[in-house]
Amino acid sequence: MDELVINTIRFLSIDAVEKAKSGHPGAPLALAPLAYIIFDRYLKFNPRNPRWLNRDRFILSNGHASMLLYSVLYLYGYDLDIEDIKNFRQLNSKTPGHPEYNLDIGVETTTGPLGQGISNAIGMALAYKYLSAYFNRENYKIFDHNIFVIVSDGDLMEGISYEACSLAGHFGLNNLIVFWDNNGITIDGKTNLTWSEDVKMRFKAFNWEVFSINDVNNLDEIKKTIDLALTVKDKPKFIEVKTIIGYGTRKANSEKSHGEPLGKEEVEYARKFFNWNYKEFEVPQEVLSYTRRKVFEGQKLEEEWNKLLNEYFKVYPHMKEKFNEFLEKRIDEKVINKLRNIEKFKGEIATRNAFGKALETIWEDLDFLIGGSADLSTSNKTYVPKLGDFLKDNPLGKNIHFGVREHAMGGIVNGISLYGLRAFCGTFLIFSDYMKPAIRLSALMKLPVIYIFTHDSIGLGEDGPTHQPIEQLAGLRAIPHLIVLRPADANETIKAFEFAINYKDGPVALILTRQNVPTIDNLPCDNLIYGAYVVIDDERPDVIIYASGSEVYPSLKACDILRENNIKVRLVNVVSFELFRKQDENYKNYILGKNLKKVLRVSVEALSGFGWEEFVGIDGLKICMNDFGKSAPYKELFEYFGFSAHKIAEKIIKKINSSL
Description:
This protein has 26 helices and 20 strands. It is an alpha/beta fold and 660 residues long. The protein folds into 3 domains: 2-298, Thiamin diphosphate (ThDP)-binding fold, Pyr/PP domains (Rossmann fold, 3-Layer(aba) Sandwich), CATH 3.40.50.970; 333-518, Thiamin diphosphate (ThDP)-binding fold, Pyr/PP domains (Rossmann fold), CATH 3.40.50.970; 527-659, Rossmann fold, CATH 3.40.50.920. The strands form 5 sheets. A 6-stranded parallel beta sheet has the order 10-9-11-12-14-13, sandwiched between helices. Helix 20 (490-502) links the parallel strand 13 (483-485) and strand 14 (508-511). The termini are far apart.
């Protein structure tokens, strides 16, 4: 039966790749025995309720081998049928080319960009460590499961895996089991073209327990090694598995079996090699009868867990409300009122400091929000000392120190969010580039991660152009499903954080200043939800100024100068392009001045002007950065680059005069 199921996995995979005329057959041929043993003998899951909280998690980090995952999920009773397997890589199918987050069919996270899956798994393991410490009691292990991951050579070459796995060892994430598909092949050929390090020694240095399986086709060796690994209770586990890519074909042990269909002749060769006498996509009935037993076993496991949970609530009744709060991601209205009751800021204050005040005010009340910074917590204002540091021996600490590991931080907070906690992370806006792939995936999966990006323009000053972001904000605004908020002052920052903490439909990025920014009297911050709103509105304006963040205040003062020159103005605070796009056409037309003739539209932002055409059109004036910044005090920079009130007004007057 073992052999029959393993070969069914192999041939479902290669038949699907052949039908699609694209895909990656080599890894499924090699890894089928490992995936089978994990799902059949170790993985705890309920296909009828893929969201069961105490399930084991399985992540295929080398997502190009997606047919391996789909074949196993189909055989073991998830919501996939044989037509879904046949529709591999086809439009709107359940089986896209790389696994996309879909718990209904058992896909725990979107993988394929190498290194992301393992980083997500580490985030899940971190969240598990926190929640098991929070909820578990003696004799009541509410959270009691493992996270299984398969990674490729490519995963381990990517820098994000170094960052994330180093942190996993440091934190002692002991329910994490990673299998390295060591086949010695990448797309370009043998791994020895580029790679000669001792990977196992690297993981030992990371403080992981390391094991080896010398032959993936030796099922007894796989089981004995996993059993031994499971006895290790204080470290994550790393298991080298030696495989032959394209096993069973004449393309075995070659890059030619990696990323393209095998071809009809090779498939026939494989059928003879494995003595497989079944048609394309044919699944022996005895295989389904055997694998689908897991449906009933899974239902029984969940029933037993539910009994344990009910007994737990009887013994610890006060924890039931907390448990429901975690499941429902509830935020009590009292917590939001605390934010709203923060005393209004006056004078000049950096928006990062306002965020810090907001976080400090409510974080203690949010047991299921954890997060931190990539070694910039005091700069990002993401640190609240009284809530403790998350450490191996202090898993209930809510401040996560990610170290100088921006990319891993992004992947890890995605995993924390996938597991069910709310997560945030912080760094300088310039370093969002280091974590961009993870941000993109949080948006693709619509995870409610909160990003805190401070030092948001040339206004950070003396650190100079290496740290002054120019094009980064435009890049973030280009990501679908990412809400970007750049508040105008400290009071609007509080409202921005309120929005972020309540938003559940995807990630939110707060773009905040290092430098002090004047508060704006009577700024209608509640209008933030519209994305863009009017601050000043003269009847029949000659100019509409669209400003963002720290440039709203100098634009406001520029309006005074323009009025002195008999120029009528409308000033619009553009907090969020994305929220503005959600408004109805009438509102958008009003903000954009569609009914106005001969009006000059101007954008003001101390970053790249890319993207502001949405507001000012192709004929408008963009007061922006067209080059990198310089090292100097921020007030001198704003004057030098033309973002002071009189320079803004001067450019607008010059533009108007040139058009007369």
